[in-house]
């Protein structure tokens, strides 16, 4: 007859009830990954396959595309999902390869600051982009601007 010994006491405390951020991070990675595949292939199709292809992508193409709020929001969605997806992945790597303490806090803090800075700057670029700024010299404006 085989006797099975009692299990040892776990070294970690039992998980707390309430909000499980790791679970929601895991769910976000899966959902954002699927959505990013759709958004990025749509982005590539419109930019590379429709119209004249890659040779048509220039300042005017981007200016014309971002004149439409639909494409502004499409590109913002890609920016936000991709940056947060990537930052969450790097956060997981930091958790896996560093032990809790000062270094881990510094790395996660730097990751948070850089992610927020890139999100703010990218969002400002998309929503404040004006290919024909008022008061600019005509020789510096693209040919499609009314003052040029």
Automatic annotation (TrEMBL):
The chain crosses the membrane at residues 27-50, 70-94, 106-129. Keywords: Heme, Iron, Membrane, Metal-binding, Transmembrane, Transmembrane helix. InterPro entries: SQR/QFR_C/D, SuccDH_FuR_B_TM-su. The keyword RNA-binding does not apply. Its main location: membrane. The keyword Disulfide bond does not apply. It comes from the Bacteria. It is found in: Membrane. This is Succinate dehydrogenase. It comes from Agromyces marinus.
């Amino acid at each position: 007859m085989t006797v099975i010994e009692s299990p040892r006491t776990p070294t970690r405390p039992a998980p707390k009830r309430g909000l499980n951020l790791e679970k929601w991070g895991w769910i976000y990675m899966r959902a954002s990954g699927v959505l990013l595949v759709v958004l990025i292939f749509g982005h590539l199709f419109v930019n590379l396959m429709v119209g004249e292809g890659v040779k048509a992508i220039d300042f005017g193409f981007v200016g014309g595309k971002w004149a439409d709020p639909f494409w502004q929001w499409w590109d913002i969605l890609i920016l936000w999902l991709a940056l947060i997806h990537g930052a969450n992945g790097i956060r997981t790597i930091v958790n896996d390869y560093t032990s809790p303490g000062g270094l881990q806090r510094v790395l996660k803090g730097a990751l948070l600051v850089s992610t927020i800075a890139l999100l703010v700057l990218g969002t400002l670029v998309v929503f404040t982009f004006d290919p024909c700024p008022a008061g600019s010299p005509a020789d510096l404006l693209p040919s499609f601007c009314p003052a040029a």
